[in-house]
Design a protein that fits this description.
It is built from ten helices and six strands. By secondary structure, it is an alpha/beta fold. About 45% of the residues are buried.
Length: about 325
Amino acid sequence: MVTLIPKQVLQLVTLFVCLLLIFSVKASPSFSDIFIFGDSMSDTGNLASVIGDYPPAYYNNRFSNGPVAVEILGEELDLPTNASLYLVGQNAGTNYAVASAKAGGSASLDLNSQINAFLAARRFSIPKDALYVVFIGGNDVRSARDVPDGQSVETVLQNAVDSIEQNIDRLISSGAKNILVINSIDMGNLPEMFLMDLQISHKPVPGNQTTQNTRRFNDLLGKSVDDIENDRDIKIAEFDSFEFLNRVISRAKLFGFRYVREPCFFFSTLDFHPDCNFGQNADAFLFFDEKHPGSIGQALIGNALFKLVEDFDWEENKDDDDGDDDNFYILPR
């Protein structure tokens, strides 16, 4: 006996199968952990573990008034991003980023020390199914402002990139497969730079040289990542935070920002901008303090990071060869 299936049921079954196929392709990636290495853009409490709590204007010892971008990424992936507290001899979390850290430095808070602490805590055998985030270099770019000549600037930037490359290579040698590298935001577009210009020339002018240094650092970093990919036969996801945040600045009104050159809170004096009203109007400011985006800016970056991680082909560890920079995510033009 043959049972006839109504046409409507067949249509529903077909639709259901199609939906299954769609969601199986677009399912969010599954990682066992997220490990983070970086500076104040990502620190969730490591520096505070040694110097004490930040001023109360800051959120839970973050250099912002809310969760930082990697926390937003972690929340979307349902993974904790607690501070490791390695600077005080603990192994409490998966976030090794420390405010003020440099990529090319040799201090206990710098990138090489972060990786040393991480690898030692895991006896140099690390999970292959974790996500590894490297977001550092801005402080190296800032330090290049104080060197005397162009060649010295190049040395500072190259040393920073060399350290990032060497440490990513160490992660890969220890088992890392899924790596996200985030370049530097435009250090010449920070309120810090405009405040310095006001002090020197009594008028705000773009931080052209620092912007050029940031571009140079990012170019060197991009080439370094290419080298790692070629040498190691691995594909690394890259996020262009420089372009992303500059596009946010160019569309400030769209996101409700009235101030993109002035911070809500001045870390240098521990005072609030008059129009920030003691933090009540912080959402009108892209930057919470002189160097760090506020909670809305952090959320924009964090959600864009998740979009990149979600779309990246981790299983094959390569992008579609269609000529597009699919491993970069920036705001559409």
